[in-house]
Amino acid sequence: GGPPGTPPPTRRGKGGGGRGGDGSGGGKNTRWRTIRRIGYGVVAAGILIPLLAFMLAYVAQDVPRPGELVTNQAATIYNSDGTGVITKVIPPEGNRHEVELDQIPLHVRNAVLAAEDRDFYSNPGFSASGFARAARDNILGRESAGGGSTITQQYVKTALVGNERSLTRKMKELVLSVKMANQWSKDDILAAYLNTIYYGRGAYGISAA
Q1: Nearest 5°: CA angle at 119, between 204 and 176?
Q2: Which residues contact 116 (CB under 8 A, 6 or more apart)?
Q3: Rounded Cα–Cα distance for residues 157 and 190 (Å)
Q4: pLDDT tens track for 32-48
Q5: Kind of pairing, strands 198-200 and 203-204?
Q6: Positive or negative: CA dihedral 113, 115, 118, 124
Q7: C-alpha span between 128 and 177 (Å, rounded)
Q8: Which sign, positive or negative, has the C-alpha torsion 191, 196, 198, 201?
Q9: Is the pTM of this model over 0.85?
Q10: Which parts of 89-185 fold into alpha helices (H)?
């Protein structure tokens, strides 16, 4: 009830600070914004740093050409007339005898692909889920670390990097597998794998198996 034309009195919050009250709401919002920005930065660093490291390693690592990786094979010693076998010398690395891919029956190749790497002809040389699982298990020190590798990774491990259980070795295996998948044909990789891998019961390579 004041004189005509006088605006009605406005209600103030208990703190007298309008929407912000005593200003603590604005401070909380600022803190949350800072926390979110830090979180975004951590996530971005977690993605960009490994990606940059992978790119640098990809450029630095060299992949041999098909045929340059020669595996030790069994040597057969014949008589001077070439008709009789005197003995066979088996190297410590096994009794391999390399064969061409077209010498391996198609059903044998398909059986290996079905058992080891169903997506071999379409994957980029590695399995993202398999690598993540192996990295996790290596970090946690689990006995089962190292599973889930593609055929390309298995070949790289056998022929180039060894089977040491470490994250560094697994990263090198990943880089070389991707580069090999880009530089080699899938048939060359499959042939090298079949001629190199251990099949059990003393058989090294598909011919011995």
Answers
A1: 65
A2: 150, 151, 154
A3: 14
A4: 888 878 887 888 777 77
A5: antiparallel
A6: negative
A7: 12
A8: positive
A9: no
A10: 106-116, 128-140, 151-156, 167-183
